[in-house]
Amino acid sequence: MGRAVTIATCALNQWALDFEGNLERIFRSIDIAKHRGARYRLGPELEICGYGCSDHYYESDTLLHSFQVLAKLLESPATQDIICDVGMPVLHRNVRYNCRVIFLNKKILLIRPKISLANAGNYRELRWFTPWNKARHVEEYFLPRIIQEVTGQETVPFGDAVLATKDTCLGAEICEELWAPNSPHIEMGLDGVEIFTNSSGSHHVLRKAHTRVDLVNSATAKNGGIYVLANQKGCDGDRLYYDGCAMISMNGETVAQGSQFSLDDVEVLVATLDLEDVRSYRAEISSRNLAASKVNPYPRVKVNFALSCFDDVAVPTCMPIQWRHHSPEEEISLGPACWLWDYLRRSKQAGFLLPLSGGIDSSATACIVYSMCHQVCLAVRNGNADVLADARRIVNEETYIPEEPREFCKRIFTTCYMASENSSQDTCNRAKLLAEQIGSYHINLNIDAAVKAIVGIFSMVTGRTPCFSVCGGSSRENLALQNVQARVRMVLAYLFAQLTLWTRGMPGGLLVLGSANVDESLRGYLTKYDCSSADINPIGGISKADLKNFIQYCIENFQLTALRSIMSAPPTAELEPLVDGQVAQTDEADMGMTYAELSIYGKLRKIAKAGPYSMFCKLISMWKEICTPREVASKVKHFFKMYSINRHKMTTLTPSYHAENYSPDDNRFDLRPFLYNTAWSWQFRCIDKQVNAL
């Protein structure tokens, strides 16, 4: 009869414009799917060219090379006897679409363009693509000659259609369409589509995975059916980490779960499912069946092929499983670590250098690198030949095997404590002890000579010598002297990143890591072009509160006891003179607000879309037990004043791992002016009027 269908989905670590590598990974996924008995293989969104091509989509080269890769796939024996569903850009009648190209045995069955484009947050698909607005409409697409020569077809169907095989019916969704309020799977399911596919380019955000899983499961809970989701994974060239989580769901329950964080470039999920379970599930939902009797039908592309075998009564089928979600601390440990590994191996550098201050932020960054080393050693133990080859190339040793995280860390990670006369012995000791426990190559140096030389040049030219506030200087002098120290550290970080391995007789250079958290960036509590200026920043999208929880996680899971004293110490920049040998400067006193308050301001400003007046109105309710309306007004005004004064710093913010939806990243996520009227006179007057009324 043919009831048990075997289908495959995958998570691929594709790289923008790496057509050769992308093709190799697609072939590997197809080979694995066929070897495990699958008759249908789904891949991630735009997998042929890589999702993150951005303005390269405008180039005819991107279209040309995508079709060249498609031709290789079509003519290969590896793609025979399995329906392959791949993603690429396609130009139809001079309009560029984000498409799925579905083919079988050297014949293209359907080109299905994306209907709902992602155009919020980090996504700008409407910049490069046009949505297909002709519901249930199919046109002829004239194939380029390079494809005609392989398939023998002159035209193929292009549009909003579904596939009808000998045993079932399949319909495609593309990423954002699952999140849309009018998702195509609703009408497709009513029209008898039993298998829904979704090719995604969905990135990691802390605490987001459950939303995606719930959407997939709910897609078939009301309407019945099988839902198959593929996703990109890894860093494909920018701030985002695509977090896999390929999955297969049936009738509202997960039956196969892929990993969220992994160093495997190719991960394939295969499930065998009984179509009769879908049909019997739908049979008793009378409201669904009444709606189905009135649905406007989809065009069907007939496919002379079955996803099941004729005699499959004894074929075992997959049972529902419970999805395991990572805790936020595990997500921080794994996501940025995988992103760092991709960046390191693809940039062809020899490791990282981190200015390690002995504070929470730089220590958390060091722990993420240590976690990366754990992941590398684990992957090699599990037989990952790609990771082993990359590790050998990075350390420049052909027979090297990374077996122990501390030993690997020593080879690829340099930490540097840059002391000044304002640094305490406590932070120096904390940095040294943490470096010993994670195994990094640690350098201690003093920046006083460089700072005095720079200030000396200023004094020689102007005849004036600036002083710290505690020595009678003005606030301008005090801030300038702090900034000189911070900027000297940035210059030295890059010098040591370029030449440290040279002094050790080793080839290559190091990537400089930044360690400013998302809250400090939002407030602008950093020196422009200081150690926050680096090549990449793995914690730039993570809040101080989450970093503290992550530090506690590392104490418990990595046995890094040095972190205990770091956790208990108040955050400080250590840029002002010590008082009786002790630190007198603290971050929260300098900022005029707590890190907890900053997180709230950030979420209200970005996620709740609140300006000064709306933020005040929300906070007088949220904080009614701890603040008077006048105190709330003062806090809100201070935040917006400092945010707007410092917004220009976001234009030079180091590329950071995107982990929070209230990130102030000016590059593409949080588009705002960087020259404000910092008086906010009209807005603040509205607040004052409301305070007086209250």
From TrEMBL:
| CDD domains per the UniProt record, alphabetical | GAT_Gln-NAD-synth, NAD_synthase
- E.C. number(s) listed in UniProt: 6.3.5.1
EC class: ligase
Q: Which InterPro entries match?
A: C-N_Hydrolase, C-N_Hydrolase_sf, Gln-dep_NAD_synthase, NAD/GMP_synthase, NAD_synthase, Rossmann-like_a/b/a_fold
Q: Which UniProt keywords apply?
A: ATP-binding, Ligase, NAD, Nucleotide-binding
Recorded GO CC terms: cytosol
Q: Name one GO biological process term.
A: 'de novo' NAD+ biosynthetic process from L-tryptophan
The molecular function GO annotations come to: ATP binding; glutaminase activity; NAD+ synthase (glutamine-hydrolyzing) activity
* Pathway recorded for this protein: Cofactor biosynthesis; NAD(+) biosynthesis; NAD(+) from deamido-NAD(+) (L-Gln route): step 1/1
State if ATP-binding is listed as a keyword.
yes
Q: Does the keyword ATP-binding apply?
A: yes
The CN hydrolase domain, residue ranges: 5-275
- HAMAP family, alphabetized: NadE_glutamine_dep
Family designation: In the C-terminal section; belongs to the NAD synthetase family.
Subunit text: Homohexamer.
Put simply, this protein is called Glutamine-dependent NAD(+) synthetase
What is the native source organism of this protein? Centropus unirufus
- Tell me the lineage of the source organism: Eukaryota, Metazoa, Chordata, Craniata, Vertebrata
